[in-house]
Amino acid sequence: MSLTQVQTEAAAAALFEAEKTRIQTGLLTRAHPDMDMEDAYAIQAALVARKCAAGRTIRGWKIGLTSKAMQDALKIDIPDSGVLFDDMFFANGATIPGDRFIQTRIEAEIAFVMKSDLRGPDVTRDAVLAATDYVCPALEILDTRIVRADPETGALRKIFDTISDNAANAGIVLGKERHNPATTDLRWVGCIARRNGEVEETGLGAGVLDDPVTALVWLANRLAAYGQSISAGDTVLSGSFIRPVEARGGDLIEADYGPFGSVECRFA
Asked: How much helix, strand and coil, in percent to the nearest 5, is found in the chain?
């Protein structure tokens, strides 16, 4: 780590304020070019603490950058993670308020809802399946409280910026269908993502580390290094298997998973 506690708290405060005002803050990696992944997760932890102090409740986790294409684009070889809060959950078919987010994008995912705790290290695939109550189709709403590109230098947002910003996490919409992951081959769960009736992206669950269950194995074992774990009742987004779809005012986003179910939302 290269950041001091004061710098870490200042970065978290800037992100917290940016979300509240819907005015993006500058690239953290420009202000702190030597920051590393440990710094980024420390900023995220400080941001989570601020949100909890403001009355929000942790409801689960999101896993990101699980596809090879996204990892190659950001020149990393591991996923990232963020925290889900109670105010991030929207009902299937909900209209998302136009004044809620800054620059929204949508990803299609498979969500795991847990019936028992999952604590690492040494979590296995079988342990994930045993701890899962059910899986269901989901949309993740992404937002960025940090500019995507620095207006002066043109420098692009980096992975450390994204992790600091709670992995760009903003919202979640769950489908109503429920499935047993032990009897459903999630690698072959497919999705057709439409915006205003037009197909934007398609993908298969195998795009998530070859199997979405593997993403939860990774998360549980990573969290153990920080003394954290996945809890009973948590919802875990296992990672997107489509590229992010821009969501503008008035857009209807629909994700058709065939026999697995469907989920949709509209942006005001």
From this structure: 30, 30, 35
How many angstroms separate the CA atoms of 105 and 201, rounded?
13
Low-confidence stretches of the chain (pLDDT beneath 70): 69-70, 73-74
What residues does 204 pair with on adjacent strands? 190
DSSP 8-state symbol, 97: P
What is the domain count for the chain?
Answer: 1
DSSP character string of 92-103: TTPEEPTTS-SS
Count CA atoms within 13 Å of residue 203 on its CB side.
Answer: 27
CATH assignment of the domain containing 112: 3.90.850.10
* Two tokens, residue 187: 């690698």
Tokens of 96: 């998302």
pLDDT at 209: 94
On whether residue 45 sits in a domain, the answer given is no
Question: Is residue 127 in some structural domain?
Answer: yes
DSSP assignment of 18-59, as one string? HHHHT-PBPPHHHH-TT--HHHHHHHHHHHHHHHHHTT--EE
Averaged pLDDT score across all residues of the chain: 95
Cβ neighbours, 10 Å, residue 248: 11
SS3 at position 117: coil
Domain ranges, residue 79: 57-267
Please check whether residue 1 lies inside any domain of the structure. no
- The answer as to whether 210 is a domain residue is yes
The residue type of 51 is K
Provide the token pair at 52.
């909890």
What pTM does this model have? 0.96
